[in-house]
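Hi L.,

You mentioned the student needs an example of a multi-chain input paired with its predicted structure. This one should do, with 1033 residues in total across all chains.
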Amino acid sequence: MIWGNFEKDRADLSAQYSEPHWDETSGMHAEDLRTACLQIERDTKGKSRMETKSLILDFILRNAQLDVDLRDFFPDMLNHDRLPFRIRGRWIQDLRRNELAEILKTHEAGQNGFSYTGNTDLSHCSPDWDAVMQLGFTGLLERVQKAHAANSKTEEQEVFYTSTERVLIGSIAIVGRLADAVEAKGGGDEKAALIAKSLRNLTVGAPQNILEAMQLSMLFRMLQSALEGEAIRSVGGLDRLFYPFYKKDIENGTFTEAQIRELFRYYFWKFYSMKVTANMPFYLGGRLADGSSGINALSYLIVEEYAALDVDDPKIHIRWYDEIPQDFVSLVFTTIRNGRNSFMFINDNVVESALVSIGEDPCDARNYTVIGCYEPAALGKEIPCTCAGRANMVKALLTVMNGGLDSYTGERVGTVTADPDSYADFDAFFAAVKEQIAAFLKGSMDLIRAYESYYPTISQAPLLSSTFADCVERGVDAYAGGAKYNNSSVVAFSVANTVDGLTAVKKLVYEEKRYTVSELADILNRNWEGHEMLRREILKKHPKYGNGNPEVDHLAAELVDFAASCVNGQPNGRGGVFRLGLFSIDYRITFGERTGATIDGRRSGEMLSKNMGAVTAMDKEGITALIQSVTTIDYKKVPDGTVLDAMLHTSAVEGESGLCAMHALLKTYMDCGGFAIQFNVLSPDVLYAAQREPEKYATLQVRLCGWNVYFTELSRAEQDELIKQCENASA
Amino acid sequence: MKKIVGSIVNIKRFEIHDGDGLRTTLFVKGCPLQCRWCHNPESISPKSALGYYAHKCIGCGNCVPACPYGAHTVDKDGHIFHRDRCQACGKCAEACMANALLFYGQHVTPEEILPQLTADMAFYKNSGGGVTISGGEPLLQSEFCAEVLRLLQAQGINTAVDTCLFASREQLDCVIPYTNTFLVDVKAIDTELHRALTGQPNTRILENIRYLDAMGKDMEVRIPYVPGQNSGEIEKIAEFLSTLHCLKGVRVLPYHDLSGTKYASLDMQYPLAGTDTPIPSTEAVEAARDTLRAHGIKVLTK
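Structure written out for the whole complex:
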């Protein structure tokens, strides 16, 4: 029986990655494999690391043990123990200890206090899925061979081409090995025969049907993400990518629609079983190259199958555009209202403009993919390093109030050293905060550049590069500047804390003249002790970001414009430019822990504000006012992206009128130039009940900050924070 | 020109239950009825009042010096609010940092509140929504409400008035030209029962409904469904409504009992307290809707 087994198989298959059963006879034992790979590293010492890495990859592809489970349609288990990833980790450690020791020392106080950080980002990328699907492994290999013959001039190019060919040939070999293993294990089994045949086809050409396309998608993810080591943070626009196969298969009778639906369940179940940190993303919809609508029959089918699985992973990005079919949006809203929260809407109009603003060709910008949570990148053209740097803006404000000192480390950070009481007026004070933010952003960018100048020695991505036409043409690795756009990103966050804090200083010091800046700094350094009434006064009386108050909102817009001017278009260390992002994701927790009390009313160690949202419960006028504030900012200057988390009470969006309200919220948000938005439809009662009886609410999903989680698996503090947001939405 | 001033409870944005689309609702203060199940007790009295939510009080004493009348005292046992001394000036609510003191009955001019009422214009446009005046009873402040509605319509905003229609013809005529939709409550047909449930007879209400109907005004009727109170009236209400010509539809609103803390904050007695009035079952509400449908009435749900 090939079909109709998913419900029977799902429980067992969920352990496929966590509890593999390696076939001991299928290859070398992991320990021996490791010894052999380390020997390759020693043997090639002094040679290009591209060569070292490709030889290691090739050796693993030919010798690692396999695990095939005949219940699964997508065999992709290879016992490599993440060896290349670990070797790379050692190379990076060596770099930090030696070549980068000095610059790391310079930025020690900034990084330890989480004022700012700068690092490698060898994750957050995507292969050119169009090329992968159109060419397959063999087509990619032919393209590289052609360019090799035509373009190879330097020694580096020669190494690039031979290494890339080696890894692609090895990739074809592993697909063949998997086909053999399935056949051997399956005997005459019908399903095994189908799977083996499909895999076999992938060793000789591009995928010919949707099963082969899905197998290729899964295999490529494994080979690049898990083995080569650059984590794929988008499996692409699944509706547009798979639609031609779907259409052909239905027309030719290769598969029925019911069978294709079942394939999608197995396919999504793989992602769920992987337990990828922050979920495995893909996108649906968006404008196609010719401007036409990207939503097709598969878009609907995919949402329905995701909903039917009732799991918190994968996560689905919806590329929103003016002509997006309303019934599709209704389907997504209904799915969200039924507790399947794993959606984020991203605005095609704004993304295209934002990518063009950092020098990308409009055609490239239009064919963007959504990396990670909400970070756009031109598909097959851009390595965006979306999470390389971070800057904590409210810490900039706090350190200015302390004359440049970070109370967490007790050390100076940034460039501002002036006496906090020396500013003549608010404008002068704000100028100092900006100077400090600029210093944090520069610190982050300097660190990233330093790492990037060594990328060719730490990161080699032959497989990823083989999908990028520019890398192949130039004979240069994707991380060595071979892509068309070799960019890096810095995220600046805690927008709401910073804006509310600036407003508090403006009122208390420069308008009411009740305190000096240093007096306020003393109060903060004592974590509000003895000044609870002042803290409450600030929370209650001062205007806050998130309520449609023009005075505060313009401050937010000015702050973001300033950060954008510091970051966007600045040269990075790989021939590309920097891009500004504004998301805080879970940095709000980690960075919050190292941030003392802040003048917006936040206590020491508490979480920072979330993404584009208001400080928790400070959006007192409701979601429409919050949207008004959030869309005051010009997101065409935020190419690395951000999001608004919209918390809606269940009763506020129930029934037909509730659906209409959600449409109005989304459309207005997008019309007003919002970047991206994700919804939680919850009621505090349910969340309290889930805290009391977690076992009854095991599958209660919540959208956290860019990914989905089961509510009951969150820490108590995170649960309480969500309840607070939810209660505020119900007020 | 005379300055028109109204007394309001609050303005709530992002409402979906008070008319078409996404709406902003202005709650005005003062109502001629006192329905036993009223869930907005703070809006019944036309006079301003202070709500005291004792469970939120942190005993900081900020309200003590803020009050010119000595209505707040704080000692070792905590905060005491002396309602008898309160002149409802609202100064303590301003000073309260714990949101334990809320002031109901702010005096405002239509121009003053217009920016808040029009802030969500883009959302109205994208949802076919607008502004609803509710309460309290808008027609009790018909001049103020008419001016608010006029200003809104002048900006092309759809307007609705949520009313019990216990009002004089003059009061009603005053708002009709500026109101797109009337959301009208019908609680009972039996006039003595109506008096028992709300403190007033319903003759005028039913006359006003017929008047609006004859005029062809866009009208939606809402029936609060309160078990043991007016639940026996559905058949009669259905008969009455089936004689109307221009009714857009009827909504049955099931009773809920979430207003207890509001009554307590105002030192008011909840009329249904101790009467053991249950939340109606889904089946009972559906049966009421079926009764209406049986009379050929369009029932609105959601």
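You could point out the following to them. The first strand of chain B starts at residue 6 and ends at 15. Chain B is about 30% helix and 25% strand.

Best wishes,
N.
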